[in-house]
Design goal:
alpha+beta; SSo0622-like fold; homodimer; 7 helices; tRNA wybutosine-synthesizing protein 3 homolog (chains A, B); S-adenosyl-L-methionine (chains A, B)
Chain lengths: ~260, ~260
């Protein structure tokens, strides 16, 4: 079912060339080592990435379908931010401002389904539990790394701020905490991925990361063990809960 | 790579029997027609579902890793709710209360990868853009229907409310709007799924849904056309944006 390695390599070349021609032409600093490690592997290439961000968007007043073009960016940061900057950006709102923390997102095209499965296990075990595969009819297999980790707070209506500066300060702390946890998960993703790849090919040249210990080479088997356990418990637990809903999100809500 | 239909049928029986023995033993009202339609098909069975909910959870004060058992439910509703009820529930917070809107979630085990691909296309085209597949090494293929549609607002700290009742009223309206949009998407999911299944087997007995028009029988081809278009544009667009991030969420933020 997988396409030939030649076809895959052509897709990879085309995609990575396009990246170089793009406006920004670079990958977020915090995700670069992950992107480089994946692109150094014949069987993977990344098609998009964002290391995580705190954004403040201004949308039009309610009613009707909102088009992307109608949204305006008031603030964006890929690092922890200061509440003064958010308060200042909020003062420019003329519609419905919403503060969001969006976690790490990564799309990786994979040669074979097994490659995507490995990556999916790595992602889930690093804390990116909403990760999943897309398989197109033409044979393109994409693994999307996604988190359950978020924050989405409407803050103004018709340009009028609905909360005080103290609350914005509190939200900034929350967003920054989530950003730090997000960085820890990216680091974990890199470590587990590197250990899994090294276990498969012990002669793999290690990419730059200071914190990989020898014990992590045994991580690949552990990745699968934990994954299997999680799948078994999911089927049982989720249905047994009071309202057929998973309570798991609670874990992510406050961390 | 798919398991035999006999093995799949056994898994299905075991899972559906367990459901009947569970504490609640029933599926959320608003998702029932979707769950029934899927379970009526030999190649699918649902392993968990939640039609969408507005929840207020109380977590412990900051610091350390938060365990599920440390979270307390102050309020839960699978329908639009009243702000008075939220304000009243908030008064019982003793830690960090967070208001969340969580959209429709559905996990479906699929016999073959093609079955999961079909379902994935239906989900994405109904607006559930964070949907994705999980493929285990034992051959279990799960399609998870997930939305980008959310709301997550911290509201108290150490039991002390950080916002006014007027803001809680505003948030209730936002959450209720998202709930209504979520219902529209579930309805769309049901319609597109039914049309896709009917196109494959014209003699399929239609499940109860009042709003399916004959034209929707042509939807299956359209599902794939739209999906293909989306995939092509994604690869190009996401990298071209100012910061390698997708702006797509803007669409969902305010709708």
């Amino acid at each position: 079912m997988a396409v030939s390695m030649e076809t895959f390599a052509q897709w990879k070349n085309t995609t990575l060339e396009k990246l170089d021609q793009s406006r920004k032409g670079s990958v977020d600093e915090r995700a670069r080592h992950v992107v480089c490690l994946l692109n150094s592997q014949e069987r993977f290439f990344t098609t998009s990435s964002c290391s995580g961000r705190i954004v403040l968007m201004d949308g039009p007043p309610e009613g009707g379908v909102v088009q992307k073009k109608d949204c305006r960016w008031l603030f964006i940061s890929h690092d922890p931010c200061r509440s003064e900057d958010l308060v200042s950006a909020l003062s420019r709102s003329s519609g419905e401002a919403v503060l969001k923390f969006e976690a790490f997102v990564l799309h990786v095209q994979c040669h074979r389904l097994e490659d995507a499965q490995l990556l999916h296990s790595v992602a889930v075990n690093s804390g990116f539990r909403n990760s999943g595969l897309t398989v197109s009819r033409s044979g393109k297999i994409i693994m999307a790394v996604r988190s359950t980790h978020g924050l989405e707070v409407p803050l103004s209506h018709g340009g009028k701020l609905l909360v005080g500066a103290e609350y914005v300060h509190f939200l900034t702390q929350k967003a920054n905490q989530k950003m730090e946890e997000n960085f820890r998960r990216i680091h974990r993703f890199f470590q587990i991925l590197q250990a899994a790849l090294t276990a498969e090919s012990p002669d793999l040249q290690r990419a730059e990361d200071p914190a990989v210990t020898p014990g992590e080479q045994e991580n690949q088997a552990a990745v699968y063990r934990r994954r299997r356990k999680r799948q078994q418990s999911q089927t049982h637990a989720e249905r047994d809960e009071e309202d057929s809903c998973s309570l798991d999100d609670c874990l992510d809500l406050f961390s």
